[in-house]
Amino acid sequence: MQQILYSQGFGTRRVCTGLVEQGYVEVEGRACNDPYADVVPEGLRFRVQGTEWQYHAKAYVLLHKPAGFECSTRPSAWPSIYTLLPPPLRQRPTPKGQPGVQAVGRLDQDTTGMLLLSDDGAFIHRMSSPRHHVPKVYDITVRHALETTAVQRLLDGVVLDDDPKPVRAAACEVTAPCELRLTLTEGKYHQVKRMLAAVGNRVEQLHRSRIGGLSLPAQLAPGHWQWLTEDDLALLR
Ligand code: URA
């Protein structure tokens, strides 16, 4: 039991032993007071100091990022998105490097929407590597009405200031005079904002609504998170 608590991020091995010995852990509705109790982790639900938890060998979560949060563990001006997650997700031991889940890429402070986090390095790499071309869909409000020529340029490719190779949108749908839905398969720094600036416009609102085949669930409110299911992971891939 102590090992399970430790793997799920409930503290050091000593802290986890103490939690069990002091009666703070419940398994299947009953107190578990033996840190060395042999418990099968797969599918296990337990409570620690009243908090319900489900065992996950690896953590894959989806956060609905609100505006006004930075995707860094050491933010410069705004609170960190990591403060929106419960401590066990931030403390899970990892084989190397920083403990806890890490964001798959970053969204700007003022961008809202889907953000994936995981402690599985291979998953993070796969989802964020430009080589894998995972499509990401952004719903955007711009300052000036969109002209057909600008939309065509976004599809044909625009040059951003740090790279002579043009970047292009995989798809672009104008949904209202000042609104568009853009699909990108790479994630350069401030890419959406810089692409719209390159065609003489300005992003006023930016929201990521879809990654791969998975959309942001309508019931997941800004600032809230949920575990990704096996079906969600299949849709992402
Ligand atoms: N492109 C941007 O410009 N900002 C984001 O947050 C994401 C994509």
In short:
The protein has 237 residues and is of the alpha+beta class. It is 22% helix and 29% strand.
Write the H/E string, N to C.
HHEEEEEHEEHEHEEEEHEEEH
The name of the CATH architecture of the largest domain is 2-Layer Sandwich
Query: Structural class per helix/strand content?
Result: alpha+beta
Given as residue ranges, the uncertain stretches (5+ residues, pLDDT < 50) are none
* H/I helix tally: 7
What percent of the residues sit in helical stretches (DSSP H or I)?
A: 10-25%
Total tally of structural domains: 3
Number of strands: 15
Biggest beta sheet summary: 9 strands, mixed
CATH class of the largest domain: Alpha Beta
The share of residues in extended strands comes to 25-35%
Mean pLDDT: 96
> What is the 3D shape?
elongated
Rounded radius of gyration (Å): 21 Å
What brief labels describe this structure?
237 residues, alpha+beta, Structural Genomics Hypothetical 15.5 Kd Protein In mrcA-pckA Intergenic Region, Chain A, Alpha-Beta Plaits, 3 domains, 22% helix, binds uracil
Question: Any overview of this molecule?
Answer:
With 237 residues, the chain is an alpha+beta fold. It has three domains: 2-54, Roll (Structural Genomics Hypothetical 15.5 Kd Protein In mrcA-pckA Intergenic Region, Chain A); 60-129 and 217-236, Alpha-Beta Plaits; 135-211, Alpha-Beta Plaits (2-Layer Sandwich), CATH 3.30.70.1560. Helix content is 22%, strand content 29%. Strands 5, 6, 7, 8, 11, 12, 13, 14 and 15 form a nine-stranded mixed sheet that branches. Strands 2-1-3-4 form a four-stranded antiparallel sheet. It has a two-stranded antiparallel ribbon with strand order 9-10. The longest helix is centred in the N-terminal third of the chain and has 9 residues, at 13-21. 27% of the residues are buried. The model has no long low-confidence stretch (mean pLDDT 96). Uracil binds at residues 107-108, 111, 190-193, 206.
